[in-house]
Amino acid sequence: MVKAAVVGATGYTGVELVRLLAGHPEVELVQLTSESYRGQKISEVYPSLDGWAELVCETLDPDQVTEKAEVVFVALPHGLAMGLVPRLLEAGVRVIDLGADFRLQDPADYETWYGKEHTCPDLIPKAVYGLPELNRSRVQGARIVANPGCYPTSVILGAAPLVAGRMVDPVGIVVDSKSGVSGAGRSLSLTTHFSEVNENFKAYNIAGKHRHTPEMEQELGRLWGGKVVISFSPHLVPMTRGILSTIYLDLKENLTYEQVIEVYREFYSHEPFIRLLPAGKLPQTKEVTGSNYCDIGVALDQRVNKVIVVTVIDNLVKGAAGQAVQNMNLLFGIRETTGLLGPGLYP
């Protein structure tokens, strides 16, 4: 049994981790931390976990965490993991960081996009970007896994086959994404107040201002072998879970739909959590809610020679906690799908 701890267990991502790990047949949850709910059972904070997880939430003590755990999931806001991870690594545990602190490989990019200096830049090259479909072999030997953001997961998986095949123009990829409100976290905010979100639909942080933009460009740039430029427009929609991303890519030459979809079939032929939809079908967020799947639909607009890719994920599962468990399975030689198989919740 892998002994696991969750730091930041009472946020939406943290509690989704607890839910998945509590049902994982090869994991023992040994510690949960929460500053807001210290001294309370996790099942008191989230009664849905009654009978599944009864640990008491504790104040974070790095020494205590490392005494108990082999792997630590860090589900904290950006800027906090970098102060904790060096101590965890020194103690010999493996770390899966669900925040942004180790996703960007250039410390200067972190300072530019997150507005603060990275305090342990020497650890950044040791972190593996934890998108298993692209980096499976590297994840298996990692000490630090930088779990991808939810928007980037949906976008990178949608664009990767064509970018890796150098079949599209790498400059000028356009992405339009919609996210449910849980992506903003559990903290109170006017922008996610019911009266502000209900019966409303809005764009935010457009025109190169969203912090996930460099993450997408970095990982797709690795596949391309050079610079990739994305115009990313995120939107908030009045639903709890889910991300739908529509990706517009300019083909470099004329191709048929069958030629395009064959690229996707080959690229994802052995991926357990990628589902390609048949011609004429496009995915919906409800079809992946509560699951670790990424559903992909592909269309070809021959009139303008564009491929339009639509992807859907559950932002809290494949976009965060489920992908983190997938990475943990790889780290410890467990079958990758363990604890994650099952259909989504519908309706």
Would you give an account of this structure?
By secondary structure, this protein is of the alpha/beta class. The protein folds into 2 domains: 2-148 and 318-331, 3-Layer(aba) Sandwich (Rossmann fold); 151-315, Dihydrodipicolinate Reductase, domain 2 (2-Layer Sandwich), CATH 3.30.360.10. Helices cover 31% and strands 22% of the residues. It has helices at 12-22, 42-45, 62-68, 81-90, 107-114, 132-140, 150-164, 194-197, 213-224, 257-267, 317-331, and strands at 2-7, 27-33, 57-58, 71-74, 94-97, 127-129, 144-146, 171-179, 202-203, 229-236, 243-250, 274-276, 294-301, 306-313. Strands 3-2-1-4-5-7-6 form a 7-stranded parallel beta sheet, sandwiched between helices. It has a 7-stranded mixed beta sheet with strand order 9-10-8-11-14-13-12. A hairpin with a 4-residue loop joins strand 13 and strand 14 (306-313). Helix 1 (12-22) crosses helix 11, helix 6 (132-140) packs parallel to helix 11 (317-331) and helix 7 runs parallel beside helix 9. The protein is globular, with a radius of gyration of 20 Å. The model has no long low-confidence stretch (mean pLDDT 94).
- How many domain modules? 2
Give the helix/strand class. alpha/beta
CATH superfamily of the largest domain: Dihydrodipicolinate Reductase, domain 2
What is the distance, rounded to the nearest whole angstrom, between the alpha carbons of the first and last residues? 34 Å
The chain-level mean pLDDT equals 94
| Rg, alpha carbons | 20 Å
